[in-house]
Structures are given as C-alpha cells and as structure tokens.
Amino acid sequence: MQLLQLGNHWDHNEEGTLFEGECQHWELSGCPQAQRLASSRQLALFSLRSLLPLLDPDSGLLILAGKGESQLYCYEVAPQQLALSPVTQCLLESVLRGVALVPRRALAVMGCEVLRVLQLSDAAIVPVSYHVPRKAVEFHEDLFPDTAGCVPASDPHAWWAGSNQQVQKVSLHPAHRPYPSFTSCLVPPTEPSSDAAPPAAAPPAETPVGDADPSEGFSSPLSSLTSPSTPSSLGPSLSSTSGISTSPSQRSLQSLLGPSSKFRHAQGAVLHRDSHITNLKGLNLTTPGESDGFCANQLRVAVPLLSNGGQVAVLELQKPGRLPDTALPTLQNGAAVTDLAWDPFDPYRLAVGGEDARIRLWRVPPEGLQEVLTTPEAVLTGHTEKIYSLRFHPLAADVLASSSYDLTIRIWDLQARAERLRLQGHRDQIFSLAWSPDGRHLATVCRDGYLRVYEPRGGPEPLQEGPGPEGARGARVVWVCDGHCLLVSGFDSRSERQLLLYPTEALAGGPLAVLGLDVAPSTLLPSYDPDTSLVLLTGKGDTRVFLYELLPEAPFFLECNSFTSPDPHKGFILLPKTECDVREVEFARCLRLRQTSLEPVAFRLPRVRKEFFQDDVFPDTALSWEPVLSASAWLGGANGQPRLISLQPAGMTPVSQAPREAPARRVPPSALYLEEKSDQQKKEELLNAMVAKLGNREDPLPQDSFEGVDEDEWD
User: Fold this and answer.
1) Using an 8 Å Cβ cutoff, are 565 and 271 in contact?
2) Beta-carbon neighbour count of residue 154 at 10 Å?
3) This prediction's pTM
4) Over the stretch 560-579, which tens digit does the pLDDT of each residue have?
5) What span, in angstroms and rounded, lies between the C-alpha atoms of 424 and 430?
6) Fewer CB within a 10 Å sphere, N or C end of the chain?
7) Residue from 471, 476, 488 nearest 523 by CA
C-alpha cells in the first residue's frame, strides 16, 4: 500500500522564498511505486481549492474534483508505467459542493457503465455516468472484473484478534445476481406488519438485457458524451437537461429532494446591440433604494436625469441606437424625482412623484417627446412630506395610490384629480406598497417591522398585520401565487438579504418560509410574472439576477438558473408579456439600465420542438392594457376580473397536441470508429489497404514497355 502525493507542496517563488501550500496524500492500492508520481503540478490541475480524490480500484479510474469548481477530471492509474493517464474532463452544470462514488454493484453493466459519480450542488444531487462505447448486447468481462461484495470478512472480535481476511468478491454478471445480503447484529430485525403488502417475487436467475435489474439502484441509461480525441474510450454522461422529459433516475431523485422547476434551465441573454439605446448621459441615481429607478411600457422608457428641476428623459423603444450628444428633450418637474410610473391603460400618461410632496401627471405626445415640456397635465397635492412610491390600480382606470414620508397612503381619482381615500396606521417610513391582483386589497411593508394588508374601500385602518423583515434597511412587497401569498424582500438582523413568503389570510402567524440569499447593501427589487409564477430579483449595483419559481406549499422556492452580467446595472425591470418572442420560447423580457445605455434581456427556455407552441410555458395572459372598471365604479364598490388572451401565434400547433415522436436509439457518433475489432478483422483491413495502395500486380511494369536497341546493333 503506497501513497500518492498531489496538490501544492513546498515550493519557491521568484524571490527564492519558501511558501507553504496544501498537500494531499491519496492512498492507492495496487501501485507499488506510486510515490514517484508525487509532484505539485504533475497533473497540471491549477486549482486554488483542495482536490477530492475518488479511486475505483477495480477499473483503476481516478476522479479528481474540487469544491466550488465546475469540472470533474478523470485519470487512469497505470502502475506498470508509473503514471496517471488522462482520460476525460466533464463540465458540470452547477458548482460542485461535494462528490461521492457509487459502488460498482449499482452500475448498469449491460449498458457498459464503468463508473458513476454523484455530484452535490446547491439544490440537487446529480449523477454523472461514464460509459465505454461498446455494443450493449453482452457482458464484457474485461470491463467488469469481480468486485468486493457487501458481506464482511470477519466480525469485530476476529479483527481485534488479528484476523486479516479479505472481503469475498462477487461477479457483476447479471446471471449471478442477487447478491447475498448482510444485516448487522447492532440493528434489531424488523417484523413485517400483518397489513403490509406481500413481498415481491424473487428475480429469476438470468435477467434479460433490456430489463432493468432491481439491484442496480438508480441506473437509468444516460446519454453518453464521448470524444474521439480522448486517450481512452471513456466519456462522461450528464443528467437530462432538456426540461421536457424526466428520466427514471431523475424521478427517483425528485422523490428524495422534492420537485424541481421546469424553468430551472432558463437562459438569460442580452439581445443584439442593434436593439440597445446607447450614449445615455447624466443618470439620476438618487431615487430611493426601494424604487425601480426608471419605468417602461411597451412603447417608451422614462429615465430620471441628474440635473436641476427634476428632469425626466422619455426614450422610444422602437427607435434604438445612439442618442445624440446634444441635450435631450425632457419633462421639467421642478423638484427632484423620487418615483415614477406609466399608466397601464394610457401609454402616453406618466405619473412622477417629487420631493416637494406633489404628484405630476404628464402627457407625452404619440410621436414622442420632441421638445422640453414644463407644464404637466395635472398636479396632485395633499401629501405634506415628499412622495416615496406610486402604484396604479391593476384593473380600474384613473386610480393611483401613493405613499409619503407623512406616513399615509392616499388613493387618487385621476379623472377628478382629487384624493378619495386615505390609509393610516403606519408608525414609520413606508418602504413599499402593492395592489392585489384583483384590486381589492393593498399591502404595505413598513420600517416599524410590520407587514400590513388594507381594504381601502372598507376603512383607513389595516385589515391585517404581521411581523415583517427584521432589518430596517429597506424592503419590497409583491402579491404572488394568484394573490394567495405575499413575497417580501428585505434584510435580517445580520444584513443578509432574504425572501419571506406570507399567507395573505394569516399574516399574524409569520412567514411560511424564509430564504436567505446573500449579503449585499442594495434592496432586492422583485419583478413577478403571474403567468409562470416566476420572480426575478436583483438590486441596484448588482451583477446577478436571481430567478425563482414560487409555490404556495412546500418547498415554496424552486431555484432556477440566474443571469449574470459582467458589469453592475442601475436598474432592472420586467416588460409586458406581449413583448416576448414566444416562437423562441421567450417567457420574459426585461430592460437593464446601465450607466450609459439601456439593454433588453431575454429569458428563454431551451426546448427541442420549437416549431410547436409551448402552451405549458405560455398560458392565457391578462389583457393588462384595457381597464375592467372605471374609477367611479371601483370607488363605488364594484369588482371585476381581467379578460384573458392567448399568446399562440397564428399557424402554430400547441405542443400538447403535437404528434409523438418515435423513440430513437441514441448512439454516440464515436461508436462508429471506437467499436472493438478482432485481430483477424484488423489484418484484413490492413491487407486490403496495402493492396489498394500498390495496385494490381498483373499490370505491366513501366520498364516492360521501354523500347531499346536491336540485338544486332550491339556488335
């Protein structure tokens, strides 16, 4: 038994000073002179983390993995050559947190699976399988020698007395299964209950090739990813990433780890530069941290500028490109901008809140802002302190809610340009407010540590109160799960950003679930899509956008792939659903505000059959640009529901009605030239190639046709 030392060791830097690094000793059985392989960079694995070794003594395969990395390295231990031969590298889908080797008794030997590794990620356990590309029609004894069984060789008393018996080896041939079992004397035998189901019949002595063996664990046939350039005919096989179907192994993992989101493989990407708005100058970054900082509808974007008079630039989304170097035409508010919002039912009306406690309503011309506007369409006065946030009613036209530092929420009738309702009960700064999807209730989160739900038409006092986030640095609230839950993003007492999910019917009982994300100074700004139950979360100055699917029951939060940008953004908002390209399975489109530009970001789901309309991803969506009620009707107590429309393009068939494809056998391309051939076949191929190179031996030689002199001319 020898030790192989790899990793960092005592080495010299350029100045000749010794420095100490990490050193690992790995025990390799069957390698009598493996210590000669000791080297700090023998394997050329430049990693700042400790490498975790996993050795399979039967096949001689060595797996190297580092925590926090996204690659698996496979080497073959060759004791005769005193070297480690590289086999392949496997790129993982997520960061590795731990790794374990599955016993060889659980391998799918009839599928030529020689190794299986379990990768522990942040939210799942992913099997990574290694296959030899051979025809899976027979048992290959050269790939699967006898392995150690599961019956101990001796008991504790015999080992203490000096016994060194080895564990008896068993064959991996399916005809020799099932293996003998072992039960420890420390575990009392369990008596089967009388009402239990009768045990299943024992498997036959021989198992057909196409049938799964029950002793193979979760050994579903995974797709093989082989490469002809690898020194050995081994290739890693990852779990399914299509997001459409689920293999038996994934179903067994889901039973252990819980459900997973069908959007877990979502891909976010910045669209082409031709759709960007660039050369944007003088952004105002002094809006409240809980404000989105800018707003957009299907036509325009309103961005506050850092200049005197609270100027707001209005940019046309249909006219991307570079903005002129000259000053842009703006809206002159006369006071610093704190929040702004487009009217969902009037794409030409913009509401702007200012530090002078006034709300200004601006009318942007249909052709766009061509000149500086100094006179708003209307000015709403009533608050005594500066405005903090503005929210339009989701169903009723001309209804606007505003919060202020005067600790009140006021609901305005924009048609009459008057205040109609006033909500009270807050004892500190109101961080955020949000309308319910049906427009009957209003939720707020306050700095005094309470989450409140109001019924504005029922009275000025809150209908419910519950404990909010512990931290007092900022928070946002949004209605989710068809209005049955409230999602609050805030901070805990240690300044960690977290998500809290509350039931709307029982706020006093506290949150249903709390999810901690990271430690950062900015408040998480949620953008919720009610059609898919997805929420996008990011903060001003962040480079990452978190994506979660929300459920009203456990596990509540299903993590999906996040979007990461190379540089921080100043704002990130969700555009209307109608802006998505459903033919490319684009389920969300956002706008990313940078220091000098506006970039559209598309979130898409990888699907195979894109020629069909993915109706499981695109349910009927609300007709959000048409009001259901008037302001007077809603104030009078009327309620309504939005009208739904389909996003299915003309001429596309829903994927739920698409004909099923015949299952095709997946054969790796490299199997065509990596198949094992006999020596006789190799000799025949070599002989045929030589004959073809030399040509036909019966053809006349060039010298036979040479015309020389006659014999009598020699005299």
Assistant:
1) no
2) 14
3) 0.61
4) 999 999 899 999 999 999 99
5) 11
6) C
7) 476
